[in-house]
Amino acid sequence: MKRADIATRVRGTLRAVRWKDRRDVYILTNTHAPPVEGNFTQESGQATKPRAVEDYNAYMKFVDKSYRMVNSYGIGRRTWQWTKELSFHLTDMTILSAFLIHKSCSGKMMHKNFCEILVRKLIIHSQEENVTASGISRGRRSPTASLLSRLEVQHSQHWPPKGKLQRCCVCSLHKRTLSTLYLCWKCEAGHCVVNCFEKWLTRLNLSH
Asked: Residue 132 contacts by C-beta under 8 Å, 6 or more apart in sequence?
């Protein structure tokens, strides 16, 4: 199709519209009359939008905005399984909804900060659940969870961004030559993000 081309297919009450602008635009509607097929441009040379596309742009602005906000800090990853994609998407939308509720209650956090704090709280909660499942009383706070809580308050800059490939400082203590892309933002020490990062910051069982 060339720019400004319109193609339509109809089945029952559904109208599928394909409109060529800078890229292909697809609309499925049951409220618009099927547009006439052909090539239509305005006097300025711009492609003439079908009515269905105009209405979408007029009434679906927040939907587009929500998708942009979700994609800014989304957890989604490419996968062949549609069930995982759906799970990622629903989780992203839940996080966004929680952030919007926070803003509606006069919250001052930015979207990025909200997501970072949520991740940290989930890590602590996961540690508590794992320890509880292993047999420790639910009423007693685990040592690991307490250490993570102190890190949250006192060492908020100790979080693992990606950097250059380097040896893990904890693995090196055990004479293992494992490389990692993660390093402590404040210490600039390389570490495996699973287990080693926690051991390094809390100095917990470094010899084991």
From this structure: 138, 142
Domain spans of the chain, in order of start: 5-59, 62-104, 109-155, 157-202
- Report DSSP state, residue 165: E
Cβ–Cβ contacts within 10 Å for residue 201, how many?
21
Q: Which two tokens stand for residue 185?
A: 């933002």
- The ranges of the chain with pLDDT < 50 are 137, 153-155, 204-208
What are 49-91's pLDDT values in tens digits? 888 888 888 887 667 777 778 777 888 777 788 888 889 888 8
Under DSSP, is residue 116 helix (H, G, I), strand (E, B) or coil? helix
Q: Give the span between the Cα atoms of 158 and 202, in whole angstroms.
A: 11
CB 22 within 8 A of CB 1: no
